[in-house]
Amino acid sequence: MAEKIKLVAVSYLNTIPFLYGIEQDKSLRNQMDLSIEYPSLCADLLIQDKADISLIPITEIPSLSYSEIIGNHCIGANGKVNSVMLYSDCPLEEITNIALDYQSRTSVMLARVLSKFFWKIDVDFENTQEGYIDSINGTNAGVVIGDRAFDLNNTFAYQYDLSEEWFKFTNLPFVFACWVANKDLSQEFKSCFSKAIEQGVNSKVKAIEWYQEKNGTSVDLDKYLNADISYELNANKRKALSLFLDLVSML
C-alpha cells in the first residue's frame, strides 16, 4: 500500500470550503492523513518535513528549500477581512508596543510592514503566548487573527483591519495563506486535490450546512466566506504576494 500523503489544514472558519471539498472526495481523502492546526504550526510541520502539503502563511514560503504552490486557491481578501485585526485603546500614532499573535506568521509580518512603510510608526514588537490578549491596554496594542477576532470586535476603542490597511497602502488584495508542497507530488494527486478544493469553494452553501451540522457557530458564515474571504489565487493576488514578500525582505 502506498504511503499516505500528510496534509495539514488551518483550523479557522475560513477553511470550511476547503475541508468540505476534501471530505466529499472519498478517493482523495483515502490518499491522505489530514490534521488540523493553527497557521504557524501548519508552517512548522511543513518546514520540519512532518507534512507533505499544508495551508501555510505565505511569509513562510521562503523558509522551504523546495516549495510549490498547489492549485489556484488561497485564503485572501479584497480589502476588509474582519478576522485579522490590530486592537488598541489608543490611535496608531500613540501606540508604543504591538503584541504579535503567536498563532500567526503572515499577519504579524503584515503588521510590521504596515508599521514601517504605511503607518510610519516606531513601535516595539513583542512575541506572545496564550493569554496575551489581556495585555492590550493603554499604549499596548495587539494583533489578533482568526476566529478569536469575532469575539473582540467593539471591545477596544480602536480596531484596524490589517487587510483593509494593506489595500489602502497598495490598492491590492492580500494573500494570507496558500496550499504549498515541500516536495514534488504526483501530477495525478495535485490535479485531484486542486479539483476538490475548487469544488468546495464553489459549494459554499453546502459547505456551511455541513459545518453547522457538525459544529455550529454564531458567526455569519454566509457573509464571512462570501464577502470577507476571497479564495481565488489570481494574477492580482500573486502580484500582491510578491510585493509583500519583497517588503518583508526589506524590514
CATH architecture of the largest domain: 3-Layer(aba) Sandwich
Structural class: alpha/beta
Secondary-structure element sequence?
EHHEHEEEEHEEEHEHHHEH
Shape: globular
Task: Tell me the β content.
Answer: 15-25%
Question: What can you tell me about this protein's structure?
Answer:
With 251 residues, the protein is α/β, with parallel strands linked by helices. It has two domains: 5-77 and 173-249, Periplasmic binding protein-like II (D-Maltodextrin-Binding Protein, domain 2); 84-170, Periplasmic binding protein-like II (D-Maltodextrin-Binding Protein, domain 2), CATH 3.40.190.10. The protein is built from nine helices and eleven strands. It has helices spanning 16-24, 26-29, 39-47, 106-119, 162-170, 187-201, 204-214, 221-228, 235-249; strands at 5-10, 32-37, 53-57, 68-77, 84-88, 97-100, 124-127, 140-145, 158-161, 174-181, 230-232. Strands 2-1-3-10-4-11 form a six-stranded mixed β-sheet. The chain is globular. The protein starts with a strand and ends with a helix.
